[in-house]
C-alpha cells in the first residue's frame, strides 16, 4: 500500500513490489473476482470446482444423522457435521499453503469427480461449473449405503472496502432417505483478513441457517478477532423449533467455540453432548482418477499445463497456457451462438422452482429462493448421470434404482 503502511514479514522481499501493486489494483476492482490479476506467489493451482469436496472430507460425520432415530438429535448431528466442514472450506488453504490463494477460475463445463471409500461405504462426488458469467459451481454428493444426499450450488459476489468482502449466493440441501427429511443450509458471507501483510486468510461474517423439514432450525453466528469474543474463527450457535429464534427458553442445543480448533455442543440443561476437535478429526482422502484416465473437461487434466507453469513460477507460460483455455472457450461459445444452442451441462439442469427449498427458506430471516440464485436454480440431474458415457459410466450403476 502506498505511504507508510507497514508491510508484514509474510511477503518475501522480492515480491513486495508486485504485492503492493496488486493491492492498488484491487482497490478499484469491479466485483468480478475472476477478472483480478494477482502476483504469481498468491496463485493457486486448484480450481474452484474442487472446493465442493470440502463438504465431505469426513464422510462419517455427513452420514451420522442417517442413523439417529431422535429428530432433535438428528438435527443436532447435522449441525455438528456442518460445523466440522468449515475448517476445510475456509482454512485449509492457509494451513496447507501458508495463506489463502487465488483459485483457478473454472471454465463452463469444467468437472471434478471423485469418491471417498471408508467404513461408511462409498461416498460419491460430482462437481460441475454450470455457469461462467456469473461463475456458478454445482455439486452433488451421495452415499447410497446410508441414504444420504447433499446437493447445491454457489456463486460469489465481491466488493472492496479496506479488504475483499465476498457474499455467497446459493445453498446446500441435505436429504436423509430413511426419514425423508431435508435440511436447507445457507452460505455465510466472508472477508479476507491480513491482506496488506500478504498473508491473507478467510474470516466468516454474519450467520448460517440450517433449516430442517423436521421443524428444527440452527443458526450459527460468526465472529473474528475484531469482535467481542476477540478470537479468530469464533462461532456461536443455537438450535430451536421453527419460528422461535427469539425465544431463549425454546433453545434445544447451543454450540460455542471456534471452527478451526474446538467447539462444544450442549443441550438445554447445559450438559455437554459433543466436544469436537477440528485438529484431530481424521479425514478420508478423496480418490480421483489418474489424469490420463480423466475426461478432457476434468479440472486437473484441463488445467495441468497451467498448474505446472504456476508451480515453476513461470508467469509467461502461465499466461499463455491460460489463453489456450480461454480461446477454446471463446470458440465454443461462438459456435453455440451460431447454432443457436446452449452448452449442455453434463450432470445438472436448471429448474424454474425448487419447492423443498422455497418452503424451508420461510424460516430464514430475509431468505428467499429469488435472493438465492444467480443465473438459475441448479439441481442434480439423475437422468443425465445415469446415461453418463465413459469415463463416467460407473455412475449409471450407482443411480440404477434412482434416488428416493
Ligand atoms: C487471497 C486473495 C489475494 C485473493 C482472493 C481470492 C478469492 C477469489 C477467494 C479467497 C477465499 C475463497 C473462498 C473460500 C471458500 C469458499 C467455499 C466454497 O464452498 C465455495 C468457494 C469459496 C466461497 C471461495 C471463493 C473464492 C475466494 C473468495
From TrEMBL:
Signal peptide interval: none
Superkingdom field: Eukaryota
Record InterPro entries: OSBP_sf, Oxysterol-bd, Oxysterol-bd_CS
CC terms in the record's Gene Ontology section: cytosol; membrane
GO BP, sorted A to Z: intermembrane lipid transfer
GO molecular function: oxysterol binding
Entry similarity comment: Belongs to the OSBP family.
Descriptive protein name: Oxysterol-binding protein 4
Gene encoding the protein: kes1_3
Amino acid at each position: 500500500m502506498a505511504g507508510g503502511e507497514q508491510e508484514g514479514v509474510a511477503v518475501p522481499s522480492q515480491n513486495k513490489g508486485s504485492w503492493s501493486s496488486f493491492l492498488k489494483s484491487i482497490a478499484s476492482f469491479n466485483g468480478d473476482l475472476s477478472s483480478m490479476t494477482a502476483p504469481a506467489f498468491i496463485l493457486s493451482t486448484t480450481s474452484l470446482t474442487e472446493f465442493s469436496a470440502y463438504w465431505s472430507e469426513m464422510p462419517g460425520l455427513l452420514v451420522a444423522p442417517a442413523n439417529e432415530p431422535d429428530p432433535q438429535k438428528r438435527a443436532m448431528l447435522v449441525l455438528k457435521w456442518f460445523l466440522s466442514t468449515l475448517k476445510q472450506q475456509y482454512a485449509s488453504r492457509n494451513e496447507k499453503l501458508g495463506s489463502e490463494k487465488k483459485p483457478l477460475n473454472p471454465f463452463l463445463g469444467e468437472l471434478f469427480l471423485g469418491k471417498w471409500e471408508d467404513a461408511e461405504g462409498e461416498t460419491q462426488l460430482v462437481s460441475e461449473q454450470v455457469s461462467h458469467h456469473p461463475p456458478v459451481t454445482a455439486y452433488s454428493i451421495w452415499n447410497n449405503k446410508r441414504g444420504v444426499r447433499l446437493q447445491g450450488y454457489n456463486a460469489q459476489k465481491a466488493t472492496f472496502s479496506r479488504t475483499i468482502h465476498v457474499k455467497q449466493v446459493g445453498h446446500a440441501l441435505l436429504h436423509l432417505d430413511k426419514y425423508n427429511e431435508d435440511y436447507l443450509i445457507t452460505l455465510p458471507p466472508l472477508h479476507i483478513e491480513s491482506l496488506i501483510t500478504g498473508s491473507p486468510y478467510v474470516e466468516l461474517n454474519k450467520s448460517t441457517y440450517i433449516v430442517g423439514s423436521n421443524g428444527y432450525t440452527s443458526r450459527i453466528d460468526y465472529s473474528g478477532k475484531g469482535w467481542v469474543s476477540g478470537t479468530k474463527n469464533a462461532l456461536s450457535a443455537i438450535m430451536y423449533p421453527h419460528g422461535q429464534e427469539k425465544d431463549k427458553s425454546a433453545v434445544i442445543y447451543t454450540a460455542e467455540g471456534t471452527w478451526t480448533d474446538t467447539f462444544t455442543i450442549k443441550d438445554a440443561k447445559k450438559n455437554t453432548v459433543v466436544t469436537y476437535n477440528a485438529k484431530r478429526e481424521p479425514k478420508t482422502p478423496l480418490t480421483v482418477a489418474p489424469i490420463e484416465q480423466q475426461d478432457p473437461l476434468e479440472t486437473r487434466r484441463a488445467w495441468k499445463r497451467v498448474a505446472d507453469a504456476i508451480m515453476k513460477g513461470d508467469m509467461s507460460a502461465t499466461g499463455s497456457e491460460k489463453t489456450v483455455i480461454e480461446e477454446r472457450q471463446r470458440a465454443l461459445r461462438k459456435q453455440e451462438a451460431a447454432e443457436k444452442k446452449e452448452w449442455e451441462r453434463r450432470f445438472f439442469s436448471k429448474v424454474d422452482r425448487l419447492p423443498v427449498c422455497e418452503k424451508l427458506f420461510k424460516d430464514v430471516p430475509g431468505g428467499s429462493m429469488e435472493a438465492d440464485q444467480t443465473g438459475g436454480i441448479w439441481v442434480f440431474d439423475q437422468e443425465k448421470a445415469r446415461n453418463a458415457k465413459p469415463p463416467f459410466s460407473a455412475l449409471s450403476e450407482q443411480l440404477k434404482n434412482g434416488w428416493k
